[in-house]
Each structure stands twice: as structure tokens, then as C-alpha cells.
Amino acid sequence: MDAHASSSSRRRDAFVPRSLLLSEDDVRRAVRRMAHEVVERVRDTESLVVLGLQTGGVGFGELLAASLIDITSAEVCHGTLDVSFYRDDAAQRPFVASAVSRVPVDLNDRLVLLVDDVLFTGRTIRSALNALGDFGRPRAVQLAVMVDRGHRELPIRPDYVGKNLPTSLSEEIIATTECGWIGTRDDS
Amino acid sequence: MINSIRGRNLLTLNELSDTAILEVLDTAELFVEVNQRTIKKVPALKGRVVASLFFEESTRTRLSFETAAKRLSADVLSLAVASSSVKKGESLRDTIATIDALGIDAVVMRHQSSGAAHQVGGYVPHVRVINAGDGLHQHPTQGLLDVFTVRQVLAERAHAKGSETGKELFTGLRVLIVGDIRHSRVARSDIAAYTALGAEVRVAAPGTLLPASLEEWSVRVVDDFDEALEWADVVGVLRLQRERGTGSFVPSLAEFTETFGLTSERARRLRPHSIIMHPGPMNRGVEIDSAVADSPAAVIERQVSNGVPIRMAALYLTVTGTPEEKTS
């Protein structure tokens, strides 16, 4: 959670919030619902590996894994994935030193569930799919996101969505495990 | 001072602020994880070309840089100087122009002349230059991997993550550098790195092996090496550089060992938590006893392993980054 907070701080410096999208309770309910959907669709949750994407997806990954453990009453393998070195736009993005990948098991034949905070262009997910290839060959990869704000630049679609939210390009979304805000960015 | 090496040449540690140094260390932490994977490769420098030009012999630095470049998916052009046109008398400028004409993004260079890397930076401003040791001047990545290794060891002891400790573990840390300070680019880079992070550095050497002027260095020369060993948290032993004529600066190797060698007997004076470092290659039995070099307090092999992530970080930041404005 520390990594999560520090990562957003740079973005938040320029963030001007307009309205609250999600309260902490909304977030918890949405994660809980997504966890039920995962169990419904996946069935053999023993093969599941939940990976939160650094840095915004880490908190949600942990929350989702905790819900899954609670629902199934069994251990669910979970970790984090950092895609900084796989990005096509690495040079333009600040990267966070504490954002380490922690993939606890060999991914061969596992079902990987990627978790992120906001799905936007899809480029992070593309990078994540490339990164996964270096950890093994999963049987399948699914994607859970807290907020889907549209504007995809790649053919990528989430399997589980906390909240669908059509946005304009000038808007900015911040989603943490405590709350979600919509606002604008002040670059001046 | 420079606050980030992103998009810049890495020629000396003297101009880097603590922020810039910490950025390299924190980036290297990420590459440590990459180096522990089964597939030790990320596509961060895919399609980029890194030329490795070693005008002076080297084992670990060269292998370490080339490994680092390959783990970042860069293509490596490696010039074997001994079998190149340099031997026919081609100038440095022409050699660089030739390599540049092939299309390169970075040059990693070691040269016997101080300032050679800086000069190359002037010839090819569009190429990132990383100094892998120039004469008696600097060896920046060695200085960086030394402070990285110290932070790693101290963080482990404190059960903390290195990147979370920032520079706090260096505050008041007592570092003793002993040996051929005069001819050592490692000493110059080490001193810059340790002092930037807030450590206190002292040096021990016979008068003939101290540089002509120590005034611009923020270090103290110790009077009594044995006493200083009891003071130090970190002891950095330097190699006696016989190829630079050190032999004529000391009466005999045996006398050097007697007065400034880290012998087993002397090592007993060290405090229990002290860390012993050596940049390699070691002259066992001259500046350091074999038994000391192989003791648990010595982190010499760890220095070598950390060379790869540090050099990955240096290549990644200099090649992919965009430079920030200089401050003060």
C-alpha cells in the first residue's frame, strides 16, 4: 500500500478533483462482487494467480485476493507485476523504484488474473501480457479493473469491471482502495 | 549538480546529487528482481545498440556491462581493441566516428587517459557515453555498485528494503578507504558517492600513494591505520596498481603489506559488524590476505553480482530518459 500511495502522489499533484465516484464502501462491494464473478467463472481457484499491476493495481489485487480467500475458504496465490521495462512509452512515464514484480509461482498452466485500477488505452495491459511471457505460459489470462473509462487504443477488453464510466479525454480518474474520484489535470 | 542521469552521459560521480545517485540505486533494485528470474531479460532497450570499447584490459567491468546490455535486450557491439585498427594508429576520434557511423545509442568506454570519456561525449553528442574507467579520474559504476552493496547489506541487517531506506543508512556511516589512493579512479568515485549520501570518509595510504592535493576532497587522511580500522564501519581496500607504476612508489610490496595491507592479524581490530570491500582484481597477499578476502565480513563477490543491476540501471536511465534541467 505504501508503493501505491507514493505512486499516485505524482499524478495527484496536478489532479483537480470534481466529484466522488466511489466511496470506500462502493469499492469494497464492487471488489466483493467481482470476486464472486471470478469464482463463478473460474471454478478451479487453486490454479488462480492474482497479480496486481504496479502500482495502482496492487491494492486492488490484494483486496480481490482477500475476498477470494474469504469466499472459497482456501488459499489464493497472489503477487504483483511491474511492467515499466515492457512499456512502449517508458521514457515519458515516471517510474517508481519500489514497484517490484513479485510473482510467487511458475505461471506455466496457471490461470492468471491481472488486476488494475483504471483501464484506459490498454497499453499497460499489453505490456503486462508481454511481461507475463517472461514468467511462463499461463493457461489463460483474465483482466479485472476497478474502473473502465473507455478510449481503448488496443483490442483489449476486461473480464471483470468494478464500474463502467464513459469519460472525456480531458478528464482524469483516480481510484484507490479507499475511494475513486473524477476530475481534471492541471498541468500549469 | 545533476539531479538525474536520465538522458545524460555518466562520466563522473562528482557532479551527481544524492537524488541522482539514489535514483540509480532504486532502479537497480528493480533489476535485481529481473536477474533472479528464470528468463533474465526485459525488452527495455530492444533495438538499441550499445558499443563496448575497452582500451584497457578488464574482466568484470566489461562482462558486467555486456551482460547488463544484453539483459535489457540491447544489441552489443564489442570492440576488441587489441585486434582493431587502433593498433594501426587510428585516433580515438576516428574510431568513435567509425562506430557511430554504424548507428549506436550508447558507448561504454574504458580508457587509460583521464577525461577520454568526456572527450568522446563531445565527438558524438547524440550518443550516450558511460565511463567505465578513465585513467586516474573516475569509475562511476564502481562507485555506484559499492554504495549499492553497502546499502543492501545494511538494509538486510535492519530487515528493511533498500529502496525504502533512501540514504538514511549512510548518515554518519564511517568509511575507510585504504591503499593506492593516488592511482585509484575507484577511490575518487567511491569518495564522491559516499560523501554525497552523507557518509564520513577517511583515507589511509603511505604518503607516496596519496594524491598531490587532497584539498578539494572532503576526506581526512588518517595518521594511524590500525586505529582507523577500529573506527570504520566499512573498509574499502584498493588494489595496488602495479601497471601504473605503483611499485616505484613503495619500497617493496612486503613493506606495503606490512604497513597498509589488510592482514588477518590486522583484521582482528575490525568491529564485528564491519564490511570489507575490494573492487577486484585482488592481489591476494599484497593489499589483502586471502583469509580476510574469504571471510564472512567481505562482500567482494556481492560487489561483482551487483555490478549487473547497477549497470542495467545506468544504461536504462541514460539511454531511455529525457534530461531534466540542471539545478544550482
Describe this structure in words.
The complex is a heterodimer of chains A (188) and B (328). Chain A has four helices and eight strands. Chain A has 188 residues and is of the alpha/beta class. Chain A has a single domain, classed as Rossmann fold. Mean pLDDT of chain A is 88; it is low at 1-10. Chain B is of the alpha/beta class. Chain B has two domains: 18-138 and 306-320, Rossmann fold (3-Layer(aba) Sandwich), CATH 3.40.50; 140-304, Rossmann fold, CATH 3.40.50. Chain B contains twelve helices and nine strands. Chain B has helices at 18-35, 60-71, 92-101, 116-123, 140-157, 162-165, 185-196, 225-231, 253-260, 264-267, 290-293, 300-320, and strands at 49-54, 75-80, 106-111, 128-134, 174-178, 200-204, 220-221, 234-237, 275-277. In chain B, helix 4 (116-123) links the parallel strand 3 (106-111) and strand 4 (128-134). The radius of gyration of chain B is 19 Å and the shape is globular. Chain B starts with 17 loop residues before the first helix and ends in an 8-residue tail after the last helix.
Topology:
The complex is a heterodimer of chains A (188) and B (328).
Chain A: H1 2-13, E1 15-22, H2 24-42, E2 48-53, H3 57-72, E3 77-81, E4 111-119, H4 123-133, E5 140-148, E6 160-164, E7 171-175, E8 180-185
Parallel strand pairs in A: 2-3, 2-4, 4-5, 5-6
Antiparallel strand pairs in A: 1-8, 7-8
Chain B: H1 18-35, E1 49-54, H2 60-71, E2 75-80, H3 92-101, E3 106-111, H4 116-123, E4 128-134, H5 140-157, H6 162-165, E5 174-178, H7 185-196, E6 200-204, E7 220-221, H8 225-231, E8 234-237, H9 253-260, H10 264-267, E9 275-277, H11 290-293, H12 300-320
Parallel strand pairs in B: 1-2, 1-3, 3-4, 5-6, 5-8, 6-7, 8-9
> What is the residue-averaged pLDDT of chain A?
88
**What is the subunit arrangement here?**
heterodimer
When the domains of chain B are counted, the total is 2
Task: State the CATH architecture of the largest domain in chain B.
Answer: 3-Layer(aba) Sandwich
Q: Which range best describes the helical content of chain A: under 10%, 10-25%, 25-40%, 40-55%, 55-70% or over 70%?
A: 25-40%
Order of helical and strand elements of chain B: HEHEHEHEHHEHEEHEHHEHH
What is the overall number of helices of chain A? 4
CATH C-level of the largest domain in chain B: Alpha Beta
Main sheet makeup of chain B: 5 strands, parallel
